[in-house]
Design goal:
heterodimer; A: 592 residues; alpha/beta; Rossmann fold; 4 domains; globular; B: alpha/beta; Pyruvate-ferredoxin Oxidoreductase, domain 3; 6-stranded mixed beta sheet; 8 helices; 23% strand
Chain lengths: 592, 190
């Protein structure tokens, strides 16, 4: 049967068809939908882990127990999971295991553009790179048998476009694979030096066998169009290259990219007048082609950053794009992403933004958007769970100065569970007078509402115990802990004042559900009035001062002709923040 | 046939994703090779969004390039002007005569030009629709996206496809009739 699937959906389908027993992931664009889809299959135990390292370790356990298993994560998630990843290559698998890395050429929703193919090279793992949804499904499916055949986890390297583009796939039924069970093999699974030195030799033998496989497998193939020009490409770039060159060139399409097929590359390049290597991010394939003695055109022609979409290829090779309409663009106003109407982060950042005397460390989530106007409330963002530790180090240096600058840090509930807990533990241990804020909006927001250890539900929607953040923080030894309503500007302001004056570390927990969250019964009981009101402007009282616009709410604007504030009734969710800003009390609840 | 490219653009939350999903399913049912590309993630939060649909005998790239779209369907005025560079010189524009202020306009840092529609019309062949009004008249402002899908169906000559059954199979039962009405109204309004 034919289906139209995204790459992420196709991976989930392929894993299901391969008889996968266990799946674990931490949400991260563009990989999130893989586990979301895996969780819809009743035969698969699919879980949101607290972070990628935990996800991969759980998958290692599942594999050693003899179940087929898959872990999926975004590119930077592999950094978090890198510790188990490298040694998993030593132990090899119990049952077939696949690790998906979803890279982001173009950085649509990421803090960097690292090329994770080097993880395969460095950890000595076989790697597959699909170029469309059909390959996503088939390669995922095959990857489990490959993993078992070579006794090694397989890395499946995706990019944003391949993850999020839909194309037609042929689906089939689930293959029922029995769970193998566990047999004690300390020489394989206990990685103390005496044993890991022996496994180190196994790795080299395995890589030699995989190189033979790479030269001879169906994932790497030549499309011979009898041309003097050859194009070598992998992943989504194969589709882009075909769009631009059609059948005017010959292709070497690489789907199995570690180890690279040296003999096949040599065979393809010999006698060609011109060879292009088209790959997004780093010159990974290009370096191998050069090593084999050829002089391809790669990063000297194509950019090392961003996507190599057809227009980029066309411009790089021919110096021009397709003909376009000529028009004036001066009136096109930028449309940056914004905090949603009703977002519970708004009230908190209105106040934090005013505290310019603080150094304010951010983290990864929707709240990162508060770095921009009108809030200007965050001064740096690096990686998941880093806010509290960056704040700590800064405070330790400021402490050596005459007038120590105070430091605050913010992160969301899911980010706190991810790696923020470790950071906060360090603050409790090494004591810095930082203000550590956990923005608890009761869900993982930016990636589209995934459950987390604090939400009380699992990836499959089953109820579970919710972690009590205030109790956890108090157990770490923090003496100053406040749980506040972020929409109450006075409460936010007073709490900040109180904690800034302290000479000890403190924790603020803002607790209010995300404006887009589907409320659980527990949310309904705890926040009965949330998002139930609409606010409106009394035009008699409004003086058109525009102070309310400082809320940066997409539901608010000023009518230029009337010179009065206007609230878009459809968008307003009644958070009450703008009403608190109005000096004339012109904004109030709509009378029902 | 050569590959056709349909570019749907709008503002995060306007429903471009459902419209393009129904479009691609219809095209697949009709026997075309189809590819679709979207970017999800941070840009969804009120940012500029696009769904790119390509169909034909054999489609390679899921992404539409600059100067590559046969039709640009914009759910919002400013977005049409932003994405116009992706249209073929002889391509068509269908624009929803509807305005959503970007944050720089809301915060008073920039102006939303009053003559965006005139600028578009000066540049190329543009059909402006009041999809929001049409949807409101049908009783639900949220079916604006399906009204615009109706316009695409008409503009691309895809009326032969059984859109009713596509809608029945993919929309919640309570909204099926409303969506079928919206699709028809959109086609008629073009």
């Amino acid at each position: 049967m034919k289906k139209l699937l995204t790459g992420d959906e196709a991976i989930a389908r392929g894993a299901w068809e391969a008889g996968v027993h266990y799946a674990a992931a931490y949400p991260g664009t563009p990989s999130t939908e893989i586990l979301e889809n895996l969780s819809t299959y009743p035969e698969i135990t699919a879980e949101w882990s607290s972070n990628e390292k935990v996800a991969l370790e759980s998958v290692i356990g599942a594999s050693i127990a003899g179940g087929r298993a898959i872990a999926s994560m975004k590119h930077v998630g592999v950094n978090v999971a890198a510790d188990p990843l490298f040694t998993f290559a030593y132990t090899g698998v119990g049952a077939g295991t696949v690790i998906v890395t979803a890279d982001e050429p173009g950085q649509f929703s990421s803090q960097n553009e690292q090329d994770n193919r080097y993880y395969a090279l460095s950890a000595k793992l076989p790697m597959l790179e699909p170029s469309d949804s059909s390959e996503c499904l088939n390669m995922t499916k095959d990857a489990f048998s490959l993993s078992e055949r070579f006794d090694v986890p397989v890395l499946l390297r995706m990019t944003t476009r391949v993850c999020h583009s839909k194309s037609i796939v042929e689906v089939s039924e689930r293959q029922n694979v029995p769970i193998k069970g566990f047999e004690r093999q300390p020489e394989k699974f206990v990685m103390v030096p005496a044993m890991s030195r022996l496994r180190r030799v196994v790795i080299e033998d395995r890589m030699a066998a995989l190189k033979d496989f790479s030269n001879d497998c169906s994932y790497n193939f030549i499309v011979d169009n009898k041309s003097d020009t050859g194009v070598i490409c992998s992943g989504g770039c194969y589709c882009y290259a075909q769009e631009v060159f059609g059948d005017r060139v010959s292709y070497l399409k690489l789907g199995f990219t570690n180890p690279l097929p040296d003999q096949l590359i040599t065979k393809f390049c010999q006698g060609k007048e011109k060879i292009y290597v088209i790959e997004e991010n780093d010159p990974y394939i290009e370096h191998e082609v050069q090593r084999l003695g050829f002089s391809p055109l790669g990063k000297s022609v194509f950019p090392a950053y961003g996507e190599l979409t057809p227009d980029v290829l066309r411009k790089s090779i021919y110096g021009e794009s397709l003909p376009q309409i000529e028009y004036e663009k001066k009136d096109v106003v930028n449309r940056p992403p914004t905090l949603c109407a009703g977002c519970p982060h708004r009230g908190f950042f209105m106040e934090l933004g005013k505290r310019t005397e603080l150094m304010r460390c951010g983290d990864i989530g929707c709240y990162t958007l508060s770095f921009s106007p009108p809030y200007n409330a965050i001064d740096m963002t690096v990686c998941m769970g880093s806010g509290f530790s960056i704040a700590h180090g800064a405070a330790k240096v400021f402490a050596q100065t005459e007038k120590p600058r105070k430091v605050a840090a913010v992160m969301g509930d899911s980010t706190f569970f991810h790696t923020g807990i470790n950071s906060l533990l360090n603050t409790a241990y090494n004591q810095s007078p930082t203000i550590n804020v956990i923005l608890d909006n009761r869900i993982t927001g930016m990636t589209g509402h995934q459950e987390n250890p604090g939400s009380g539900y699992t990836a499959k929607g089953e109820p579970t115990d919710a972690i009590d953040i205030p109790a956890l923080v108090k157990a770490m030894g923090f003496k100053h802990v406040a749980v506040i309503d972020p929409n109450d500007l006075q409460q936010v302001s007073e709490t900040l004042d109180k904690f800034i004056a302290l000479d000890e570390p403190s924790v603020i927990i803002t607790r209010w559900p995300c404006a887009l969250k589907k409320f659980s019964p527990e949310d309904k009981a705890e926040f009965p009035a949330a998002y139930s009101e609409k606010y409106t402007v009394d035009e008699e009282k409004c003086i058109g001062c525009k102070l309310c616009l400082k809320a940066g709410c997409p539901a608010l604007s000023v009518d230029k002709n009337k010179k009065k504030a206007v609230i878009d009734r459809i968008q307003c969710l009644g958070c009450n923040v703008c009403a608190q800003l109005c000096p004339k009390k012109a904004i109030g609840k709509e009378v029902k | 046939m050569t590959t056709k490219s349909v570019l749907l653009v709008g503002v995060g939350g306007q429903g471009t994703i459902l419209a393009s999903k129904l479009l691609t399913l219809g095209l697949m049912e009709a026997g075309y090779d189809v590819k679709m590309s979207e970017i999800h993630g941070m840009s969804q939060r009120g940012g500029s969004v696009s769904s790119q649909v390509r169909y034909g005998e054999k489609v390679f790239s899921p992404v539409i390039e600059l100067g590559g779209a046969d039709i640009l369907v914009s759910f919002e005025l400013m977005e049409a002007l932003r994405w116009l560079e992706y249209l073929k010189p002889q391509g068509k524009v269908v624009v929803n005569n509807y305005r959503i202020n970007p944050m720089p306009v809301i915060s008073g840092k920039a102006d939303y030009a009053e003559d965006i529609l005139e600028q578009l019309q000066k540049a190329t062949d543009v059909t402006a629709m009041n999809a929001a009004e049409i949807a409101e008249k049908l009783g639900n402002p949220r079916v604006m996206n399906i009204v615009l899908l109706g316009a695409i169906v008409k503009a691309m000559g895809l009326e032969e496809i059984d859109w009713e059954s596509i809608i029945r199979a993919n929309v919640k039962p309570a909204f099926v009739e409303m969506n079928i009405q919206a699709l028809k109204a959109g086609a008629e309004a073009l």
